[in-house]
């Protein structure tokens, strides 16, 4: 097993130094968390499924001309990605009221919104990733006016692509979150979609039955999370041929 230097470990993924300058290896864990990691479990095969599902979405976005950090999938649990500077904001796009929006605004879950609504959340686990305004983002220099315009444009294009892809297989895209990174080329920068796009970061409901096929299955104890993610992968035609787990690379001392 190759020995690599770990760069970062989050709740669902580990980043290792990549084989070439400007690259990283992104490893998908089986860990499942909810409510700012207050609820935790390990779901066998979850990392494999998210790796394949995120590869499918990122490849589709790249082909549509939406820039991402994704280069290629390496194996069952790992992707080769470009190293980017992550903007400390989560960009959430909502098509139908659910989750925190329903609680915050008293809108019945499942209510169709008059148009997609884009929200920004400050990435800080200690604060619970609070909802922030554009004025706050600008005042604290988390992003510029141009960054915000570009982030909204990327979010809209991801929503258009992902909504169509899911609807074609009988799944309604309720909402999703993405992270955006700055990719530098000398003095020039461009914003790209980073992190992952998978059922961990989307709400997905069956069009006919309303069955939840996302992390709400884990949040709300609605059944087997791996079964829900497998159903999404099966419908999209990206079900892994072998769910055999792959162990983590050994770390450099």
Please provide a written account of the structure.
With 253 residues, the chain is of the alpha+beta class. The chain has 2 domains: 3-83 and 225-251, Phosphorylase Kinase, domain 1, CATH 3.30.200; 85-206, ATP-grasp fold, B domain (D-amino Acid Aminotransferase, Chain A, domain 1). The chain has 6 helices and 15 strands. Strands 9, 10, 11, 12, 13 and 14 form a 6-stranded antiparallel beta sheet that branches. It has a 5-stranded antiparallel beta sheet with strand order 2-3-4-8-7, covered by helices on one side. Helix 1 (46-63) packs parallel to helix 6. The longest helix is centred in the middle third of the chain and has 23 residues, at 145-167. The radius of gyration is 18 Å and the shape is globular. Mean pLDDT is 93; it is low at 243-248.
Structural class: alpha+beta
Largest sheet: 6 strands, antiparallel
Mean pLDDT over all positions = 93
User: Class of the largest domain in CATH?
Assistant: Alpha Beta
List keywords for this structure.
single chain; 253 residues; alpha+beta; Phosphorylase Kinase, domain 1; D-amino Acid Aminotransferase, Chain A, domain 1; 2 domains; 6-stranded antiparallel sheet; 6 helices; globular
